[in-house]
Amino acid sequence: MFKSFEFTDKDLYIYNKEIKDYIPDIIIDSHIHSWKKSHIIYDYNFNNYKLDKPFKDLNLIDEFIYKDFQKYMNIVFPSKKYYGMFFGLPFLFIDTEKNNNFHLINSTINNYNFLYVTLPEEDIWKTDKSKNFLNNKNFLGFKPYPDLCKLKSDEISIFDFVNRSVLEFAEENSLFILLHLPRKRGLGDQKNISEIVKILKQYKKLKIILAHAGRAYCVKDIIDKLDVLKKFDNLFFDLALVSEVSVIEYVLKKINVNNIFYGSDNPWLLIKGKDVFINDNFYYISNKLYDWSLGPKESVKTDFTLYAYEQIRALIYAINTTRPRCFNKYMNKIFYENFNYFL
Questions:
Q1: What is the mean pLDDT of residues 176-197?
Q2: Which residues contact 26 (CB under 8 A, 6 or more apart)?
Q3: Pick from 20, 73, 99, 291: CA 20 to 30 A from residue 330's CA?
Q4: How many other CB atoms are there within 10 angstroms of residue 46's CB atom?
Q5: 93 in any annotated domain
């Protein structure tokens, strides 16, 4: 549950005036986290854990399950049918096995698609013997994550948290791997690009989704980085939490629209504020001051709307400036058709 969720008449006005008529009636969100309170390892040593992201803030959202998803999406996107691809919360303070088992069971009960969160050292072939992934029609692939690797963040290679068994199993079964790039600059780091190319050249049937457009929140981190990647048909980009117009414009200019997915980073799309970059650095702006954000003092009134709406505003603007004649086509593809093709 999102403890401080606010939705006002002003938010509904923004939705009705700026968003409702521009997005399709059916939406598929390719980036949804879900976990229960019982998956949290409460005796984890949080004292040494850097609270630099909203995703780590359990005081903000301590649980997000399917009924929460339905409740909030009905509020934020009224009159729309909103579906998505779910996966766990990939941090060390979460019991990954419990979180994964929860989705293995509940994806069938609630009929939603899901990814399995992999541990860096996990042998997926061995895991499959007990999980029987392919017997679950809603299983779409894997969600590795650098924070599950115990190396320092700047030292982590993609291959430190995406092991060979994950790649081979995904290749043999044409599965998705949703990849959150390591290293500080994401796509802005040439080492990441070289490793992505190495994977795509060797494994041609798996499908890699670069989360957050390759963590390219700042346009500096994506300029001149896509020419070597755009030739791979099995490489996709989700736009989760990307609200910088210049980044989205660049992706639209360089990448085939069929390879772009709408993603929200649900449930954090419910925060009021926006991602911004200042002096080539990325910051979270929020209507309340958190450890991970820039925000106002209590005495300062704000008039912010949801991250969800800011992201869609940016996408609408970017398509209108880069592909205005194809606006409806692009919106339908990004929000629904592209991902639905694989279901």
A1: 95
A2: 80, 81, 83, 336
A3: 73
A4: 12
A5: yes
Give the integer Cα–Cα distance in Å for 88 and 97: 10
Residue 217 has pLDDT above 90, yes or no: no
* Residue 119 located in a structural domain: yes
Q: Please give, one letter per residue, the 3-state secondary structure of 8-68.
A: CHHHHHHHHHHHCCCCCCEEEEEEEECECHHHECCCCCHHHCCCCCHHHCCCCECCECHHH
Span 270-295, mean pLDDT? Answer: 91
The percent of residues above 90 in pLDDT, for the chain, comes to 84
Quote the CA–CA distance of 336 and 217 in Å, as a whole number: 23
Which residue range is the domain that position 52 belongs to? 9-340
Name every residue whose Cβ is closer than 8 Å to that of residue 143 and which is 6 or more positions away in sequence: 87, 88, 90, 115, 116, 117, 118, 177, 178
Inside any domain, residue 4: no
**Do residues 260 and 252 lie in contact, with contact meaning Cβ atoms separated by under 8 Å?**
yes
**337 has pLDDT over 90:** yes
Per-residue pLDDT tens digits for 19-55: 999 999 999 999 999 999 999 998 876 665 667 788 8
Residue identified by tokens 């939490």 is: 241
Question: Which of 330, 327, 332 minimizes the C-alpha distance to 257?
Answer: 330
**Mean pLDDT of the region 245-253:** 97
How far is residue 76's CA from residue 309's CA, in Å, rounded to a whole number?
9
Give pLDDT tens digits for 147-166: 999 876 677 999 999 999 99
Residue 313 CA to residue 326 CA, distance in Å, equals: 17
| Poorest-pLDDT segment among 72-81, 268-277, 312-321 | 268-277
Q: What are phi and psi of 249, to 5 degrees?
A: -60, -45
Tokens of 83: 């579906």
Q: Which two tokens stand for residue 139?
A: 């299983």
| 12 and 192 Cβ atoms separated by less than 8 Å | no
Q: One-letter amino acid identity for 227?
A: D
The domain spanning residue 178 has which CATH number? 3.20.20.140
pLDDT at residue number 1 = 76
Number of domains composing the chain? 1
How many other CB atoms are found less than 10 A from the CB of residue 134?
11
What does the block give as tokens for 291?
């450890």
